[in-house]
Automatic annotation (TrEMBL):
<dbReference type="InterPro" id="IPR012093">
    <property type="entry name" value="Pirin"/>
</dbReference>
<comment type="similarity">
    <text>Belongs to the pirin family.</text>
</comment>
<feature type="domain" description="Quercetin 2,3-dioxygenase C-terminal cupin">
    <location>
        <begin position="157"/>
        <end position="235"/>
    </location>
</feature>
<keyword id="KW-0223">Dioxygenase</keyword>
<keyword id="KW-0408">Iron</keyword>
<feature type="domain" description="Pirin N-terminal">
    <location>
        <begin position="12"/>
        <end position="122"/>
    </location>
</feature>
<feature type="binding site">
    <location>
        <position position="106"/>
    </location>
    <ligand>
        <name>Fe cation</name>
    </ligand>
</feature>
<dbReference type="GO" id="GO:0046872">
    <property type="term" value="F:metal ion binding"/>
</dbReference>
<dbReference type="Pfam" id="PF17954">
    <property type="entry name" value="Pirin_C_2"/>
</dbReference>
<dbReference type="InterPro" id="IPR014710">
    <property type="entry name" value="RmlC-like_jellyroll"/>
</dbReference>
<keyword id="KW-0560">Oxidoreductase</keyword>
<feature type="binding site">
    <location>
        <position position="104"/>
    </location>
    <ligand>
        <name>Fe cation</name>
    </ligand>
</feature>
<dbReference type="InterPro" id="IPR011051">
    <property type="entry name" value="RmlC_Cupin_sf"/>
</dbReference>
<dbReference type="Pfam" id="PF02678">
    <property type="entry name" value="Pirin"/>
</dbReference>
<dbReference type="GO" id="GO:0051213">
    <property type="term" value="F:dioxygenase activity"/>
</dbReference>
<feature type="binding site">
    <location>
        <position position="62"/>
    </location>
    <ligand>
        <name>Fe cation</name>
    </ligand>
</feature>
<keyword id="KW-0479">Metal-binding</keyword>
């Protein structure tokens, strides 16, 4: 089967705005429901969030979800009902497994600086596992060394943090202008440009906030037109499959 790619533009994302939050949704989320845009592969949520100073998400519940947070600017303070506490900043990979049920809050404790982060959700392999939390720092030098695995449940991957989903992995690449990276070959791939602009081999260029959804990915190459950062989900299954 030949590879296909579906380009989703930043301007076409649904947006939630409040007095303290600007959240741009790649998929259906909250009050924004599109029946033909609920997921890609195993990825259900890819939210691009900016939270104002001294604000954030009060304690709220989650269940049976692997939640990965990647901060671009600022700091995000996490607390949950299992007793975990952490401050997430650029280069620190964080995963919360909601499992059988957990309450957590996410706050921007800075009095002056907003926090900008991407939060991504995939379903776990098993329901009702014990909730857990993990974070690990990845230095900038490593992130500039090609496609670096941030989180993975795939057995042969050496990842900073683990996922309770053996058919999914999240990678990141920080590219200088002119640098290239080869995407994995996988049944489902989601490449999201968080900064900069890249050229995708045999497809359209991608700017900040744009995404490419690959089916039967054949390992195409991304080349940065300017300093860029890309988050790439590699998935070997889809929801219900």
């Amino acid at each position: 089967m030949s590879a296909t790619v579906d380009i989703r533009r930043a301007a076409d994302r649904a947006v939630t705005r409040t007095s303290w939050l600007e959240s741009r949704h790649s998929f259906s989320f909250g009050d924004h429901y599109e029946p033909d845009n609920t997921h890609h592969g195993l990825l259900l949520v890819n939210n691009d969030d900016i939270v104002a100073p001294d604000n954030g998400f009060q304690a709220h519940p989650h269940r049976d979800m692997e939640i990965v947070t990647w901060v671009l600017e600022g700091e995000l303070t996490h607390q949950d009902s299992a007793g975990n506490h952490g401050v997430v900043y650029p280069g620190l990979a964080q995963r919360m497994s909601a499992g059988s049920g957990i309450l957590h809050s996410e706050k921007n404790d800075s009095p002056t600086r907003p926090v900008h982060f991407v939060q991504m959700w995939v379903l776990p392999d098993e329901a009702n596992i014990s909730p857990s939390y993990q974070q690990h720092e990845i230095d900038d030098h490593t992130l500039r060394g090609g496609l670096v695995t941030i989180a993975s449940g795939i057995a042969h991957h050496d990842a900073a943090i683990s996922l309770h989903q053996r058919r999914a992995a999240l990678h990141c690449a920080r590219l200088r202008s002119g640098e290239s990276v080869d995407l994995p070959a996988a049944p489902y791939l989601h490449a999201f440009v968080v900064r900069g602009r890249v050229t995708c081999e045999d497809a359209e260029d991608l700017g900040e906030g744009d995404a490419a959804r690959f089916t039967d990915s054949d390992g195409r190459r991304l080349t940065a037109q300017q300093p860029s950062e890309v988050l790439v989900w590699e998935m070997h299954a889809k929801l219900g499959g």
